[in-house]
Design a protein that fits this description.
Number of strands: 8
Largest sheet: 8 strands, mixed
Radius of gyration: 15 Å
Distance between the termini: 18 Å
Helix content: 10-25%
Strand content: 35-45%
Order of helices and strands: EHEEEEHEEEH
Strand order of the largest sheet: 2-3-4-1-5-8-7-6
Structural class: alpha+beta
Number of helices: 3
Length: about 160
């Protein structure tokens, strides 16, 4: 079953953790020095905050797929939306190894579709797994098969 995803940038992580823990009546499922995440069931949402990136507020929205079939369905939908799709494949980002792709709506709001494969010990830099030598900011989309792709600024600023 899919889960809605929201990622916010915050100035004060501890203060924000306190606020959202009370708002959701739940403690975060994961806390790092620059990141926290709640995996809520009611409503079914993966809500993440971090101090990385520019500005504050909503960084991106997304849908977390439970399995490969759901992720493939989301990719088909994103391709049908007639916007540029950026397929990152397997990446290390936001303390997770994930498979993901991105699409932006007509207003430039970045949408991430992904499935988490396993937990990671580092925030990471989004890049194909096995290409740890390449740089880039977390969730900055890697060019597909060597072709440069314009990536919305919000996508390049952070990730899930």
């Amino acid at each position: 079953m899919k889960r809605f995803h929201v990622h916010l940038h915050v100035d004060d992580l501890a203060k924000s953790i306190g606020f959202y823990s009370k708002l959701f009546a739940a403690e975060p499922a994961r806390v790092e020095q620059d990141y926290a995440k709640w995996m809520l069931d009611d409503p079914r949402v993966n809500f993440a905050i971090s101090t990385r990136g520019d500005g504050k507020g909503v960084d991106h929205l997304g849908i977390q797929a439970a399995d490969e079939a759901e992720l493939a369905e989301l990719k088909t939908r994103a391709q049908a939306a007639d916007q540029t799709l950026v397929d990152e494949g397997e990446t290390l980002c936001c303390y997770s190894r994930s498979e993901k792709h991105w699409v932006s709506d007509p207003q430039g709001v970045a949408w991430e579709h992904y499935r988490t494969l396993e937990s990671a010990q580092v925030y990471g830099k989004s890049r194909p797994v096995g290409d740890e030598a390449s740089g880039g900011a977390c969730c900055a989309a890697a060019p597909a098969k060597g072709t440069p792709i314009a990536v919305p600024a919000k996508v390049a600023s952070s990730c899930c």
